[in-house]
Amino acid sequence: MMLPTHMSTSEDTLLSKTIQSRRNILLASQTRQTEGVTEVKEAETQMGGEDFAYYLQHVPGTFFYTGAMPENSQDVYPHHHPKFDINEKAMPIAAKVLANAVLSYNE
């Protein structure tokens, strides 16, 4: 019996270079100005699977992480771990970051 699998999420190199120049500078600057954001840093390239890869088959895209570690917690568990938890206060901040990115995309 075949188990369902996710394809790998592959970086669009041309898009990434473009984003890392103009758009990344703009997005990082806007993100820093978003109320509630305390830190912005570039993530290392990682190996892994993510269903976001299915979107990237149809359109170029980019991926970002939202820091959402629970307050007053020293224990960090990965996604899909039974003890995984997030700080839900990060969700509206991430929504603001996405909204700002969309609104400024064509500027």
From TrEMBL:
GO molecular function: hydrolase activity
Pfam families assigned: Peptidase_M20 (PF01546)
InterPro entries to which the protein is assigned, alphabetical: Amidohydrolase, Peptidase_M20
Protein name: Peptidase M20 dimerisation domain-containing protein
